[in-house]
Protein backbone atom coordinates (compact mmCIF):
# COMPACT_ATOMS: atom_id res chain seq x y z
CA UNK A 1 0.00 0.00 0.00
CA UNK A 2 2.91 2.33 0.69
CA UNK A 3 4.23 1.78 -2.87
CA UNK A 4 0.90 2.76 -4.46
CA UNK A 5 0.72 5.93 -2.35
CA UNK A 6 4.31 6.80 -3.28
CA UNK A 7 3.59 6.18 -6.98
CA UNK A 8 0.54 8.46 -6.74
CA UNK A 9 2.65 11.19 -5.17
CA UNK A 10 5.39 10.72 -7.78
CA UNK A 11 2.88 11.09 -10.61
CA UNK A 12 1.47 14.21 -9.02
CA UNK A 13 4.98 15.62 -8.55
CA UNK A 14 5.79 14.93 -12.22
CA UNK A 15 2.56 16.62 -13.34
CA UNK A 16 3.38 19.65 -11.19
CA UNK A 17 6.94 19.78 -12.56
CA UNK A 18 5.60 19.73 -16.13
CA UNK A 19 3.13 22.49 -15.29
CA UNK A 20 5.93 24.57 -13.74
CA UNK A 21 8.05 24.04 -16.86
CA UNK A 22 5.20 25.17 -19.16
CA UNK A 23 4.46 28.20 -17.03
CA UNK A 24 8.16 29.11 -16.95
CA UNK A 25 8.34 28.94 -20.76
CA UNK A 26 5.21 31.06 -21.06
CA UNK A 27 6.67 33.59 -18.62
CA UNK A 28 9.92 33.76 -20.65
CA UNK A 29 7.94 34.40 -23.85
CA UNK A 30 6.05 37.23 -22.17
CA UNK A 31 9.33 38.64 -20.88
CA UNK A 32 10.82 38.50 -24.38
CA UNK A 33 7.83 40.33 -25.81
CA UNK A 34 8.06 43.00 -23.12
CA UNK A 35 11.81 43.44 -23.66
CA UNK A 36 11.31 44.20 -27.34
CA UNK A 37 11.75 47.88 -26.59
CA UNK A 38 14.94 49.34 -25.16
CA UNK A 39 14.96 51.04 -21.77
CA UNK A 40 15.32 54.41 -23.49
CA UNK A 41 12.26 53.79 -25.65
CA UNK A 42 10.25 52.74 -22.61
CA UNK A 43 11.31 55.89 -20.71
CA UNK A 44 10.40 58.08 -23.70
CA UNK A 45 7.00 56.39 -23.92
CA UNK A 46 6.38 56.85 -20.20
CA UNK A 47 7.32 60.54 -20.39
CA UNK A 48 5.14 61.01 -23.46
CA UNK A 49 2.25 59.24 -21.73
CA UNK A 50 2.68 61.41 -18.65
CA UNK A 51 2.64 64.58 -20.78
CA UNK A 52 -0.47 63.35 -22.57
CA UNK A 53 -2.28 62.50 -19.35
CA UNK A 54 -1.28 65.83 -17.80
CA UNK A 55 -2.66 67.57 -20.88
CA UNK A 56 -5.92 65.65 -20.51
CA UNK A 57 -6.25 66.64 -16.87
CA UNK A 58 -5.78 70.27 -17.87
CA UNK A 59 -8.66 69.86 -20.28
CA UNK A 60 -6.69 69.96 -23.52
CA UNK A 61 -8.43 66.90 -24.91
CA UNK A 62 -12.00 66.29 -24.00
CA UNK A 63 -13.83 63.01 -24.66
CA UNK A 64 -15.58 64.64 -27.61
CA UNK A 65 -12.17 65.57 -29.10
CA UNK A 66 -10.98 61.99 -28.67
CA UNK A 67 -14.18 60.68 -30.24
CA UNK A 68 -13.74 63.02 -33.22
CA UNK A 69 -10.12 61.92 -33.56
CA UNK A 70 -11.18 58.24 -33.49
CA UNK A 71 -13.83 58.86 -36.15
CA UNK A 72 -11.24 60.65 -38.29
CA UNK A 73 -8.85 57.69 -37.97
CA UNK A 74 -11.63 55.25 -38.87
CA UNK A 75 -12.48 57.35 -41.93
CA UNK A 76 -8.81 57.37 -42.99
CA UNK A 77 -8.57 53.60 -42.51
CA UNK A 78 -11.73 53.04 -44.53
CA UNK A 79 -10.35 55.25 -47.32
CA UNK A 80 -7.05 53.35 -47.38
CA UNK A 81 -8.84 49.99 -47.50
CA UNK A 82 -10.99 51.16 -50.43
CA UNK A 83 -8.02 52.79 -52.19
CA UNK A 84 -5.63 49.82 -51.91
CA UNK A 85 -8.13 46.98 -51.72
CA UNK A 86 -6.30 45.46 -48.74
CA UNK A 87 -8.13 44.35 -45.65
CA UNK A 88 -5.96 42.72 -43.00
CA UNK A 89 -7.83 40.22 -40.86
CA UNK A 90 -5.11 39.08 -38.46
CA UNK A 91 -1.53 39.74 -37.45
CA UNK A 92 0.66 38.06 -34.88
CA UNK A 93 4.23 38.74 -33.90
CA UNK A 94 6.63 36.74 -31.79
CA UNK A 95 10.12 37.80 -30.77
CA UNK A 96 12.54 34.97 -31.50
CA UNK A 97 15.78 36.67 -30.52
CA UNK A 98 16.54 39.99 -28.84
CA UNK A 99 19.91 41.58 -28.17
CA UNK A 100 20.99 45.16 -27.67
CA UNK A 101 21.40 45.92 -31.39
CA UNK A 102 19.62 43.01 -33.08
CA UNK A 103 16.03 41.75 -32.96
CA UNK A 104 14.50 38.81 -34.83
CA UNK A 105 10.71 38.59 -34.96
CA UNK A 106 8.41 36.07 -36.59
CA UNK A 107 5.31 37.63 -38.18
CA UNK A 108 2.13 35.99 -39.40
CA UNK A 109 -0.27 38.12 -41.43
CA UNK A 110 -3.49 37.28 -43.22
CA UNK A 111 -6.02 39.26 -45.15
CA UNK A 112 -7.76 39.89 -48.43
CA UNK A 113 -7.03 42.06 -51.41
CA UNK A 114 -10.30 42.63 -53.22
CA UNK A 115 -11.56 39.03 -53.44
CA UNK A 116 -8.21 37.20 -53.15
CA UNK A 117 -7.20 35.82 -49.76
CA UNK A 118 -3.57 35.60 -48.70
CA UNK A 119 -1.43 34.57 -45.75
CA UNK A 120 2.15 35.61 -45.13
CA UNK A 121 4.67 34.25 -42.70
CA UNK A 122 8.15 35.76 -42.44
CA UNK A 123 11.00 36.66 -40.13
CA UNK A 124 12.08 40.25 -39.74
CA UNK A 125 15.64 40.96 -38.66
CA UNK A 126 16.08 44.50 -37.30
CA UNK A 127 19.64 45.70 -36.76
CA UNK A 128 20.57 49.02 -35.19
CA UNK A 129 23.95 50.65 -35.71
CA UNK A 130 24.27 54.01 -33.95
CA UNK A 131 21.18 55.81 -35.21
CA UNK A 132 20.61 53.73 -38.36
CA UNK A 133 18.05 50.95 -38.31
CA UNK A 134 17.94 48.34 -41.06
CA UNK A 135 15.41 45.57 -41.57
CA UNK A 136 15.75 42.36 -43.57
CA UNK A 137 12.92 39.97 -44.44
CA UNK A 138 13.77 36.26 -44.50
CA UNK A 139 11.98 32.92 -44.53
CA UNK A 140 9.05 34.40 -46.46
CA UNK A 141 6.20 31.99 -47.01
CA UNK A 142 3.11 33.03 -48.98
CA UNK A 143 -0.11 31.07 -49.13
CA UNK A 144 -2.55 32.28 -51.74
CA UNK A 145 -5.46 30.89 -53.68
CA UNK A 146 -4.00 30.74 -57.19
CA UNK A 147 -6.96 28.83 -58.63
CA UNK A 148 -4.66 26.98 -61.00
CA UNK A 149 -3.10 30.14 -62.44
CA UNK A 150 0.53 29.24 -63.17
CA UNK A 151 1.56 32.91 -63.43
CA UNK A 152 0.43 33.54 -59.86
CA UNK A 153 2.29 30.45 -58.66
CA UNK A 154 5.46 31.62 -60.41
CA UNK A 155 5.07 35.11 -58.97
CA UNK A 156 4.56 33.75 -55.44
CA UNK A 157 7.62 31.49 -55.77
CA UNK A 158 9.78 34.34 -57.04
CA UNK A 159 8.61 36.66 -54.28
CA UNK A 160 9.31 34.04 -51.61
CA UNK A 161 12.78 33.50 -53.05
CA UNK A 162 13.67 37.21 -53.06
CA UNK A 163 11.78 38.12 -49.86
CA UNK A 164 10.49 41.39 -51.31
CA UNK A 165 7.25 42.29 -49.49
CA UNK A 166 6.80 45.65 -51.20
CA UNK A 167 6.80 44.02 -54.64
CA UNK A 168 4.34 41.41 -53.38
CA UNK A 169 1.83 43.97 -52.08
CA UNK A 170 2.11 46.21 -55.16
CA UNK A 171 1.72 43.33 -57.59
CA UNK A 172 -1.05 41.67 -55.60
CA UNK A 173 -2.99 44.92 -55.50
CA UNK A 174 -2.85 45.33 -59.28
CA UNK A 175 -3.50 41.65 -60.02
CA UNK A 176 -6.42 41.43 -57.55
CA UNK A 177 -8.02 44.58 -58.97
CA UNK A 178 -7.93 43.21 -62.52
CA UNK A 179 -8.94 39.76 -61.27
CA UNK A 180 -12.03 41.37 -59.76
CA UNK A 181 -12.79 43.15 -63.06
CA UNK A 182 -12.45 39.87 -64.99
CA UNK A 183 -14.67 38.06 -62.48
CA UNK A 184 -17.39 40.71 -62.80
CA UNK A 185 -17.16 40.63 -66.59
CA UNK A 186 -17.48 36.84 -66.74
CA UNK A 187 -20.31 36.98 -64.22
CA UNK A 188 -22.10 39.43 -66.53
CA UNK A 189 -21.98 36.97 -69.45
CA UNK A 190 -23.18 33.97 -67.44
TrEMBL record:
Q: Does the keyword Magnesium apply?
A: no
Can you tell which superkingdom this protein's organism belongs to? Eukaryota
Q: What are the record keywords, sorted? A: Coiled coil
One of its Pfam families is CENP-P
Q: Name one GO cellular component term.
A: nucleus
UniProt keyword annotation of Coiled coil present: yes
**Gene Ontology BP term (one):** CENP-A containing chromatin assembly
Residues annotated as coiled-coil are 6-33
PANTHER family in alphabetical order = CENTROMERE PROTEIN P (PTHR28577:SF1)
Q: What is this protein called?
A: CENPP protein
Biological source species: Grantiella picta
* Organism classification: Eukaryota, Metazoa, Chordata, Craniata, Vertebrata
Gene symbol here is Cenpp
